[in-house]
Design a protein that fits this description.
3-stranded antiparallel beta sheet, elongated, DNA-binding transcription factor activity, MarR/SlyA-like, mainly alpha, Arc Repressor Mutant, subunit A, about 10% strand
Length: about 170
């Protein structure tokens, strides 16, 4: 084992020493993912705080922006895309509407359309640009081919573990 290692490496080595009958190799992946998730989340929170926007509103505005012109979705579509309840969407919309970032309009059949305003689009474009720039800086320690390979492996793992169907057997 390398003399230079991170916390996950130390934890894995300690388990190997203390319980040689176990295979703690999952620590090399999972503990590092947890640690990096915290690092990335903390960094994003700092950036969003500096930009005076919270993650929930970022998610709402980003979802509308990614939907393409005319940047309009129903409240039901927003709830489906953001994986939150209709009540949570309603709260987010109220806050975004107060800021002038979205407009709600009633549609036939008790549906409500949500439109991203020019101010909302300008804001999300600015915020997204700053997020992508900062996260690109964080990932720049990896050469581009390694970043693409990592993205491919993470996508494969995500799909395998989140696609409905039988999970691999335990034991």
């Amino acid at each position: 084992m390398s003399t230079e290692t991170d916390r996950a490496g130390w934890i894995e080595a300690a388990w190997r020493r203390e319980r040689p009958d176990l295979d703690p190799s999952s620590i090399a992946v999972i503990t590092r993912i947890w640690h990096l998730a915290k690092v990335f989340a903390d960094e994003r929170r700092r950036l969003l705080a500096a930009l005076d926007i919270d993650p929930a509103l970022l998610d709402l505005l980003g979802t509308l922006r990614r939907s393409g012109a005319p940047y309009t979705l129903t409240t039901r579509e927003l709830a489906e895309h953001t994986l939150v309840t209709p009540a949570a969407i309603s709260q987010r919309l109220t806050r975004a509407e107060r800021q002038g970032w979205v407009i709600r309009t009633p549609e036939p059949g008790r549906r409500v359309a949500v439109h991203l305003t020019d101010a909302g689009r300008d804001l999300i474009d600015t915020v997204a640009g700053q997020i992508f720039d900062r996260e690109g800086e964080l990932l720049s320690v990896l050469p581009e081919p390694d970043r693409r390979a990592l993205a491919t492996h993470l996508e494969r793992l995500t799909l395998a573990l989140t696609t409905p169907g039988p999970m691999p057997a335990l034991g």
